[in-house]
Amino acid sequence: MNKKNMTKMTASFVLGCFLILGFVVISGGLQQAVAAEKAEDTLHRIKRTSTFNLGVREATFPYGYLDANNKYVGFSTDIARKVHEALEKELKMKIKLNYIVVTGRTRIPLLLNKRIDLEAGATVITKGRTKVVDFSVPFFTTATMVVVPKDSPIRTLENLAGKRVGTPSGGLEERMYRSFNESGRINPPVKTIGYEDHPEGFQALIVGAIDAYSSDGPILYAMKQKASHPDKWRIFDPRANVFLQAFPMRENSSRFKNVVDNMIVELFESGEWQKLFDKYFGPKSKTPYALTDGLKYLKVMNSWPK
Q1: Which residues of 194-223 are buried (b: 16+ CB within 10 A; e: fewer)?
Q2: Can you tell me whether residue 59 is helix, strand or coil?
Q3: Average of pLDDT values for 211-235?
Q4: In DSSP terms, which residues pair with 98 in a beta bridge?
Q5: pTM for the whole thing?
Q6: In whole angstroms, what is the distance from residue 76 CA to residue 62 CA?
């Protein structure tokens, strides 16, 4: 091999080594960046971006909805705004509150891909959900109920056998009725039909596309109250469950969770939670709902000592 070819080979070898080394360095840097992104606490992310991304609902009365002035309001939304205030106090800086519309089907995916930092709706704590997200301390408790035409013969859970029942897509009701079908508790099986939002499901009930619509109790009472003829509808409790509602958030964000939890507890302690309840559920509200024994117990449990 002549000297010229030897020089070319040496140069190629050195260049190859640099390219390999550069790839390793870049690859390692990317891996570190990805690891850092995954490890970032939600509170750190909010501080870094100066933005709190809140998942809100447009038509989940009375928890979260757009009012006549196109403002996001509701029981859960108002509590989430208190979270925003607590974050500014904790971080000692101005934080932009960014509203992002979610549905029952999109809330968890948008939380996991970091599009939102918290979801303000009527989300229930379930075993399945705790495998992928964390939850704040609960701020409400209620149960699944059913709305039917006033003259409907459907009055119990068993009366739903063989009927078409509308449920919110992505909600726990679909799984609940499926489990009843599989266990034989309801026979013949219920046929569930999912709807993206509650008004769509209630409209299906109005036109007769379904025999009943099933969801969280206060949501059904709100829809009945807002209907053009409220007296045409009847709501009953099938006594199928009782559950807790809370804010879902990303895992491994303990500092953020501490801020949210302590803010909720302070609402109970200060009496602000009761004021919000009266505003959205009280007898003078548009969606009256009784202060149940479960809610009274929750008030006591969430009043932590200093």
Answers
A1: bbebbbebbbbbbeeebbbbbbbbbbbbbb
A2: strand
A3: 95
A4: 53
A5: 0.82
A6: 8
Any idea which of 11-25, 74-88, 107-121, 124-138 has the lowest mean pLDDT? 11-25
Distance CA 123, CA 131 (A): 15
Question: Which 8-state DSSP code applies to residue 124?
Answer: B
DSSP β-ladder status, 144-149 and 212-216: antiparallel
For 56-79, what is the mean pLDDT? 96
Q: Give me the domains of the chain, ranges plus CATH numbers.
A: 42-141+245-301 (3.40.190.10), 144-241 (3.40.190.10)
What does the alpha-carbon distance between residue 206 and residue 210 come to, in Å, rounded to a whole number? 8
Q: What share of the chain in percent tops pLDDT 90?
A: 82
Say if residues 63 and 57 touch (Cβ distance below 8 Å): yes
Q: What is the pLDDT of residues 28-44, one digit of tens each?
A: 554 544 444 556 899 99
